[in-house]
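tokens incoming
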């Protein structure tokens, strides 16, 4: 029963993203380089927001934990990390921008000793995309022990090489939610990856 509930959560979160890749209209927009589509940056932002909501559900049995978008302060509270798509941390923040009911943004500044893991999110993942994250990953290791990468989707034949590339760059974990074949539009959901992601989040203390 628990697995069925978790699968339902996965389907609810990620079903909407698939249409933005396989829609004939969206594909034609991209092919013609027309404006009017949803930018990859915005899709990535939406992905990180959905993951934050999901993580908050996963850690709901650990009321001392939280997940947010923001920066991590260093050990001396002088310098900030790069912007983090997702910070999983012990509850409490040094400061937050907006964060009120009905706000447009909710951005947190988290102390070094409260940060447990960060998750970098990207829409369509390739080896090049991960390579560009090398400097980010290296710098984030100065602020938090666990640096993870979560991709919305990738090519079916790229999964093994992406896992190797992510490890080589320094990411502790790599996940993708589904694979997408650009030629056939075939999509394969990654339930095992989702369950593994859930377990890694649940291990955080």
């Amino acid at each position: 029963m628990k697995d069925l509930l978790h699968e339902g959560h996965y389907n609810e979160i990620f079903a909407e993203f698939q249409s933005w890749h396989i829609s004939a209209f969206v594909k034609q927009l991209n092919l013609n380089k027309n404006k009017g589509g949803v930018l990859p940056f915005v899709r990535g932002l939406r992905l990180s927001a959905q993951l934050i909501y999901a993580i908050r559900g996963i850690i709901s049995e650990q009321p001392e934990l939280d997940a947010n978008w923001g920066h991590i302060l260093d050990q001396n509270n002088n310098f900030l990390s790069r912007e983090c798509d997702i910070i999983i941390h012990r509850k409490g923040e040094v400061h937050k921008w907006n964060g009120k009911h009905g706000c447009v943004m909710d951005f947190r500044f988290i102390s070094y000793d409260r940060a447990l893991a960060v998750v970098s999110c990207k829409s369509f993942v390739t080896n090049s995309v991960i390579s560009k994250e090398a400097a980010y990953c290296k710098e984030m290791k100065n602020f938090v022990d666990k640096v993870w990468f979560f991709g919305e989707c990738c090519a079916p034949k790229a999964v093994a090489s992406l896992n190797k590339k992510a490890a080589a760059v320094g990411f502790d974990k790599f996940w993708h939610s589904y694979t997408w074949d650009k030629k056939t539009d075939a999509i394969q959901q990654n339930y095992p990856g989702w369950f593994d992601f859930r377990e890694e989040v649940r291990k955080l203390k």
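note: The chain has one domain: 2-203.
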